[in-house]
Amino acid sequence: MKAFRRFAIHGDTRATGKEMHGKNWSKLCKDCGVIDGKSITLTDVDIVFSKVKKKSARNITYDEFKTALAELARKKYKDKTGEEAEAEVFKLIEGKAPVIAGVTDTSKFTGSHKERFDPTGRGKGKAGREDIVDTSGYVSGYKHRGTKLKESTKE
């Protein structure tokens, strides 16, 4: 299943996509609408994850993932048979990917982060990250710009 792989590698550069961490399991359930806040909560999702994984493991495999979804499906759709409930939950997850819109939408940025991007959302580079100081003044680091000597010879 593509959704399993997409969520398994989300946020982890070393992930192979064959096993999913608990954080990504929770994100999958939230982003795909499995958690509804009534029949299934975040706590239920965490309990099911702990139940299906091996005792010493921190991740679940694809087979354990299917088992966990089946368990959540029975809880979410109590009025349907086991297979119908599983099919409904698989429909919710099918083809989905992690939601990252809030991270990449620069119009929602505030404060100094807003200054790092132009109106199109493209980064300004170093100019957006640093205050470039004009060192042409008379005091600190004066570099003889428009020196007094040249000004006095004009008179």
Automatic annotation (TrEMBL):
Cellular component GO terms held in the UniProt record: cytoplasm; microtubule
Molecular-function GO terms, alphabetical: tubulin binding
Entries under InterPro entries matching the protein: EF-hand-dom_pair, TPP/p25
Entry keyword annotation includes Cytoplasm: yes
Keywords attached to this entry: Cytoplasm
UniProt keyword Cytoplasm present: yes
Subcellular location: Cytoplasm
Record region (Disordered): 110-155
Biased composition (Basic and acidic residues): 112-132
Record protein name field: Tubulin polymerization promoting protein
Organism encoding this protein: Sparus aurata (Gilthead sea bream)
Phylogenetic placement of the source organism: Eukaryota, Metazoa, Chordata, Craniata, Vertebrata
